[in-house]
Amino acid sequence: MNTAVPRFLDRTTPPHIATLILIAGISALSMNIFLPSLPNMAAYFQADYGTMQLSISLYLAFSAGLQLVIGPISDRYGRRRILLISMGVFAVASLGTLLAPNAEIFLVFRMLQASIATSLALSRAIVRDMVDEDRAASMIGYVTLGMSVVPMLGPVIGGALDEVYGWQASFLVLLVLGLAVWALTWADLGETAVNRPTSFRAQVREYPELLMSPRFWGYVLSTAFASGVFFAYLGGAPFVGTVLYNLTPSELGLYFGATGLGYGAGNFLSGRYSTRIGTNRMIVYGNVAMAAGLIVQIGAVITGLGGALGFFLPFLLVGVGNGMVLPNSNAGMLSVRPHLAGTAAGLGGAIMIGGGAALSALAGAVLTPQTGAWPLLTIMALSCLGSIVAIALVIRRNKSLGL
User: Fold this and answer.
1) What digits encode the pLDDT tens for the residues 170-194?
2) Which of 286, 270, 189 has its CA nearest to residue 230?
3) Which residues contact 127 (CB under 8 A, 6 or more apart)?
């Protein structure tokens, strides 16, 4: 554990929490700022919606594969170096999306933008380098509370930019912010991985130690299924809003903001109460909140009450649940084997994002004007149920071990 006191803009000490918030935030922004623009992007490239929706699922799939190796690499070579490289690749890829002449080349650069997803995984590993498990859950909660402003405002800003300047404006914003956060990381983020293994191969050999741990799998699956609710929503909600409710990009962005508002509230609760209540109980309460939100959303669709507002507003409560589950399940996942925090972050992140890519693609593929929102609601409900079962198994395992 690196117990040095952080000093802002001193790259010989651990990073300031504001830097971690921005590092994680740029990753979240790249995922959702352009969502209201998907229909217009499809028209620009003369491609169908399903093709442009791959800008989400391919991005997530590439992120998953990258995180399989980024954790061990960061344990071996350090968090700082890997973050700077990944952010540099992100900046180049953002420029490529602006210059792409067709949908295929755009999607290639969009996949390369996924290099920034290492920022989210490594920001969690950096927190775990600095503090113990319960404090890690609290600190991750505050980090993700700060970055929750991004999914709240990102689609709102993206939708407004699209209507005034076109879809390219969102990717120009990503380029500029990517360069700015790279500079901040270089100036402020000192190395936190103080106990490095001898080789990358030795780190890969540690995977079985994690994969054979039922508690690790429980936390990972709780994380994956809870985030799967959100990723399925990302893949399907733009279609629901645009095709079923005839929303404009700016209107869709405002409705997406409800998710970020709820996510921020949930992360505030995690930051405030995780140390006092405990990670497992916070995960349980978060799952209950997600389930309640989905029940209200399903009821609104059945009755037709509220129209678009009835569909989108209940996701405020789902966001609260997500904000309670994810910081705590991530902290639990990283604390099963603290000496493998980077490896756990990468492996767990790969499983989480890989599952998210599949659910996002599935949601985008099965929705049609004839089916309405029901395929999306079914996917989200089953994913929430999976998170509930996973944490129940962790709690049962802890009792058997006397933890």
Assistant:
1) 999 999 999 999 999 999 888 877 6
2) 286
3) 20, 136, 139, 140, 143
Q: Are 249 and 40 in contact (CB under 8 A)?
A: yes
CB 210 within 8 A of CB 344: yes
Distances (CA, A) of 322 to 135, 141, 254, 325, 330: 19, 11, 19, 5, 12
Closest CA to 253 of 366, 175, 163: 163
The dihedral through the CA atoms of 386, 391, 392, 393 has a sign that is: positive
The CA angle 333-376-248, to the nearest 5 degrees, is: 110
Closest by CA position to 295, among listed 317, 263, 320: 317
> Which residue type does 286 have?
G
Number of domains in the chain: 1
- Rounded to 5 degrees, φ, ψ at 102 are -150, 175
Which CATH number do you get for residue 97?
A: 1.20.1250.20
Distance set, CA 276 to CA 247, 265, 301 (Å)? 43, 17, 38
For residue 6, tell me if it sits in a domain.
Answer: no
In the structure, what pLDDT confidence band is assigned to residue 35 with cuts at 50, 70 and 90? confident
- The answer to whether position 166 is within a domain reads yes
Whether residue 38 lies inside any domain: the answer is yes
Give residue for tokens 């990670």. 279
CA-CA-CA-CA torsion sign (273, 275, 278, 280): positive
Give the amino acid at 104. Answer: E
3-state percent helix, strand, coil for the chain, nearest multiple of 5: 85, 0, 15
Residue bearing tokens 């399989």: 68
Q: Would residue 11 count as lying in a domain?
A: no
Instruction: Provide the sign of the torsion angle of the four alpha carbons 33, 98, 242, 238, taken in this order.
Output: negative
Least Cα distance to 321 among 348, 343, 345, 297 occurs for 297
Phi-psi region of 14 (alpha: psi -120 to 50; beta: other; left: phi over 0): beta
Q: How far apart are CA 82 and CA 89, in angstroms?
A: 11
Distances in Å between the alpha carbon of 199 and those of 77, 155, 343?
9, 42, 13
Per-residue pLDDT tens over the stretch 211-254: 788 888 999 899 889 988 988 887 788 888 888 898 887 888 78
Checking 309-312 for CB contacts under 8 A at 24+ apart, the result is: 309/255, 311/240, 311/245, 311/373, 312/237, 312/241, 312/255, 312/256, 312/258
Domain housing 118: 17-191+200-401
In this predicted structure, the answer to whether residue 200 has a pLDDT above a threshold of 70 is: no
